[in-house]
Amino acid sequence: MDDRLTGLRASVLSLWRAHGRQTPIAGLVLASAEVPTGPFHGVYRPSLCAVLQGAKVSRLGGQAFRYDAGKCLIASLDVPIRAEIVEARPDAPYLALALEIDTAVVAELMLGQGNVADPPPGAAIEVHDLGGALIDPLERLLALAERPQDIPVLAPMIRREIVWHLLTGPQGGRLRQIGLADSRLARIGRAIGWIRTHYAEPLRVAHLAALAGMSPATFHRHFKAATAMTPVQFQKSLRLQEARRLLLTRPGDVAGIGFRIGYDSPSQFSREYRRLFGEPPGRDGAELRRGLAEAGP
């Protein structure tokens, strides 16, 4: 496997030096770090994240998922995570790529596949080996960055091939569900979509259960199995991540930001923010802005 990764590592490192995080190929981003970093917070969309060198740990609720060289993390739903790069050195930097998975392509490829049974309840992110069937199309996709005239025609074809290999490989069990409108995971995904759009509004589990076509008790059980969080905890994580983003652009308005994301009590907002990020919002926002200023253009 290590020999198969050599070409991918070289391509990612070359593209990172030329373009940084954003590549010319839509939906494909790169990551590189010479020292361990984090923790940092974000929301994983349906995606494939492959580590080619070093190691990373992503946490969903109370579950930790470690993936190192030759491993990939596959996210089947939008989920808020906390992640950190745990292995990286100047002479062997952390190298990874992340490719968004188009759920419409998943649905199209699943047409004609017949009935697909729901997998056992489990988290919406999983770690698997990066199989050889994925390495070849990933190499071809990365190579397109040096041939921009070919990207509009060939990139969608190669991305479709990658999705097919994911669906038909050992890592495809949960991913296949997002292409089936009536699957358990797709119905949980509809509820997650509502929470993401309406995160600042009061949350009623009965309403979310109705969106998912489940009883409240069944919905609560399957939601927690997929996200490792209750719906209320999920909403809180989204609210606080949005607050952190707003603190970068609205310094000095901590209370206003708390109200904007749905908190009636400034003290509760500050307390829960500190519990998640380790510092009260005002101090954390100042540190974030200072870090960006020191990083320069």
Overview of this protein structure:
There is one protein chain. The protein has 11 helices and 9 strands. It has 297 residues and is of the alpha+beta class. The chain has 2 domains: 177 residues, Jelly Rolls, CATH 2.60.120; 63 residues, Homeodomain-like (Arc Repressor Mutant, subunit A), CATH 1.10.10. A 5-stranded antiparallel sheet has the order 1-8-3-6-9, with helices on one face. Strands 2-7-4-5 form a 4-stranded antiparallel sheet. A hairpin with a 2-residue loop joins strand 4 and strand 5. Helix 3 runs antiparallel to helix 4 and helix 5 crosses helix 6. The chain starts with a helix and ends with a helix. The mean pLDDT is 90.
